[in-house]
Write a structure and sequence with these properties.
Blueprint lengths: L1 H28 L4 H22 L4 H28 L4 H12 L7 H36 L6 H9 L2 H14 L6 H28 L6 H26 L3 H11 L6 H8 L4 H25 L3
Helix pairs in contact: 1-5, 1-8, 1-12, 2-5, 2-7, 2-8, 3-4, 3-5, 3-9, 4-5, 4-9, 4-12, 5-6, 5-10, 5-11, 9-10, 9-12, 11-12
């Protein structure tokens, strides 16, 4: 019980405390969230990805292992959610919505902060790898799923090429791989901007949650949330063991894969009219219940 309370008070509740500030600012002061979201998406977030990868002490093989885990864990959850949807007799749209909920965890707003609180900069560096892979998957596989296969490969590729984080990864790999020196003022400036992204991400998360209304679609949300919060940690553990992850790599990867559903799935579901009410309900439920499930996962799995 002491371990559970320790994880809850030191690692989980601080995240919700900051997100709560965002919710208050949005609900009672009507603070605009779009500008902050764009600030994170186009500037602070890419700076965090770049600085974390460039300054990391991870070897090329370790980066490959972490990225492979993120890809395999996400695809495994996508396959399981499709199977579960068929067994439950869901329609094509409902199965697509279930994939969105089960496949894409909130590895940015929630996961980066949690892993930094728990494991420091070493945790943040590893969490960024999962976050980057997951972000690319959201704007490729996620959009394909949401559109029920109506988009072609070029459209999905254009979505990836619009993501600043994609270019941050490419530049970071070039600088990291060729040991290119950066001017100290530039490197430090990017690092400062990246560090600022985490609190702003949490503020935006709170604002997004404050805007989620008209909760319905429990028929879809309940099994989808079960997959995201209960099944995903088990799948993640098996994948991590199979790949051979150890130590901090093992712990951070499993935590990232065990988080509640990414808020961006509500935007995709709304844009493509794929059960937006059910997806929104799943995001809210999974986020609230994750206080319990993520705490238990960290404690019971010894992360």
């Amino acid at each position: 019980m002491t371990d559970i309370l320790d994880v809850l008070t030191k690692n989980i509740l601080p995240i919700f405390a900051v997100a709560g500030i965002g919710a208050i600012l949005r609900r009672w002061m009507h603070l605009e969230k779009e500008s902050l979201s764009r600030l994170v998406f186009y500037a602070l977030g890419p700076c965090l990805v770049f600085s974390s990868l460039v300054n990391s002490q991870l070897s090329g093989s370790e980066l490959t292992q972490l990225a492979t885990f993120a890809l395999v864990a996400a695809l495994a959850m996508g396959a399981l959610s499709l199977l579960a949807g068929r067994l439950l007799g869901f329609s094509r749209q409902e199965r697509a919505a279930m994939v969105l909920v089960a496949m894409f965890p909130n590895s940015g707003n929630f996961g980066l902060t949690l892993n930094q609180l728990r494991y420091g900069d070493a945790g943040l560096t590893r969490a960024v790898v999962y976050f980057t892979v997951s972000t690319i998957l959201v704007f490729t596989v996620g959009i394909f799923v949401a559109s029920l296969g109506k988009l072609d490969g070029r459209t999905a590729l254009r979505q990836v090429l619009k993501m600043p984080a994609f270019y941050a990864v490419l530049l970071a790999l070039i600088v990291y791989g060729f040991h290119l020196p950066l001017p100290s003022f530039l490197a430090r400036g990017i690092e400062i901007a990246g560090n600022g992204s985490i609190p702003v991400m949490l503020i935006v998360l709170g604002m997004q949650l404050a805007d989620l209304k008209n909760l319905s679609g429990l028929r879809l949300a309940l099994p989808a949330v079960t997959l995201r919060l209960i099944v995903a940690p088990v799948v993640a553990t098996l994948v991590a063991l199979f790949i051979g992850l150890q130590g901090t790599d093992y712990a951070v990867s499993i935590i990232q894969a065990s988080l509640p559903t990414a808020v961006v799935t509500t935007i995709i579901a709304t844009e493509f009219d794929v059960q937006p009410a059910g997806v929104t309900t799943a995001v809210v439920l999974s986020t609230l219940l994750s206080v319990i499930t993520v705490t238990l996962a960290i404690t019971l799995l010894g992360l």
